């Protein structure tokens, strides 16, 4: 990816004196055509992509009276922002408990998945035991098994194992979604670590475990961060397992709780529902803001491998 | 597999009777590999492979919530698919698209959900692909604040689907829809006219498809953008010198080099659109009149809410052939990629 910058700059110099729009060299476009072909469509798409969040935020801070009044005030803005909905959410509902559940389930299953994936990825890429390629392929196939065809039998399994309606039902089932993805991602990272480093360590008498912990993992930290963030986001996002395996109020996660507990049809709940959606999204957006590059690497890495 | 000199030396050094599990563990890569694989394998076998098999088995039983159920062979499938699946399938398509009124042999709701799932997947995926590719091409151009714009584009993908779906639920509200208000303001519809976004069959389908497109476009755009960035700029320089137009450059350089990544991205997109559950469950729960029931939501309704695990499992299992088709598609996409890179294995 770093290669692309350089030749493009030289292209600018080479074709500097040819002023034909068809050539597609961006800097030669007129301001108007750039406006029409780039900024206008991009602006419209961005507006559509971001509008639901604006509307969510605005609803969360609007007074109740303005929520159902589309005639006398402009619904796209409010002059009387209120924190009432967020206050109600945080102090008069179980929302903090749900937030805590979501967080602990996400961290628990992410950590479990990363431990399992590091072992699996290292074994597949570097130990190259008999059948490693087949196992790698099988893990890719596991990535393609969607939760919506698994939740019915899994509900039975979870019930039989006595995990139903406990946080462990989620902590132990989420890794099935996470492990294939993060193994695949880490395999890519481990492949980039020079094999010579490990050979040196082997000759010096290091065990495989020492090599993994002292050499491979420190070098794969960007990959580990990517995998962690992506797994965490997937856990936070997960809905169908949490909806099926959890029934007790105090064990629910944020997405499930908002859908099942808040949507009772009362028109004056909209402020609180949107506040709940907003507060539930914020941790991920903040995390994302700090680790954009890792996030994109995780998302595109798994596809490119 | 040939032994490395190191392993041979170790084996020679260790007396035969002391070749305990520990020594073997340290020197034998198959043993070592087994232990390194164990945690991942345990999770995937216990909670993925076993339930997958169990799901297929359940679909041949009359299991209900709280009862084990007995083997009933193909009865669930006969009940759902009817005796003449092909004519039922064609019948539901004709009924939905052309307003005919064929009597179906099987379960009408099931066939409707199959139709809905295919409609949802085909329409949403095609539009997502078109907009996603267009957005990727836009983002690949030189512009100020590129990094920030790219980061912002991905936000719909970051935010939990359920939570953004709830925002859409409010946007599509019957009485207080901001969309209706905007259309009224623009003069597109009459002042007192209300659009029943999620209550009317056609509108509900369009609304859920729109929400799905909204959520899926960023993923496709950003992944395709990553693919675009690996296309060497010198190819475009050569094309420019040869007098190629913008369209020719797209058609003969960008598109062929992007096919492998398009194949993979679209496989994932089709897979996750086909098995979508969250958006539908939040927005319509399958209504109105089952017009937006997908196979995933129907199986949840039958198995978990209705308690008929066997029947729900049969619906889930009926999704597997479609998923296999998507995976085959992905496989051939990857094969083609190797070919394009000169047949290298890595």
UniProtKB/TrEMBL annotation, chain A:
Its main location: membrane. The keyword Transmembrane helix applies. It holds the Pfam family BPD_transp_1. It is a multi-pass membrane protein. Keywords: Cell membrane, Membrane, Transmembrane, Transmembrane helix, Transport. PROSITE patterns: ABC_TM1. Belongs to the binding-protein-dependent transport system permease family. This is Carbohydrate ABC transporter permease. The lineage of its organism: Bacteria, Pseudomonadati, Pseudomonadota, Alphaproteobacteria, Rhodobacterales.
TrEMBL record, chain B:
It is a multi-pass membrane protein. The chain crosses the membrane at residues 32-58, 118-139, 151-172, 219-240, 252-274, 313-334. It is found in: Cell membrane. It comes from the Bacteria. Keywords: Cell membrane, Membrane, Transmembrane, Transmembrane helix, Transport. CDD domains: TM_PBP2. Residues 114-332 form the ABC transmembrane type-1 domain. Belongs to the binding-protein-dependent transport system permease family. This is Sugar ABC transporter permease.
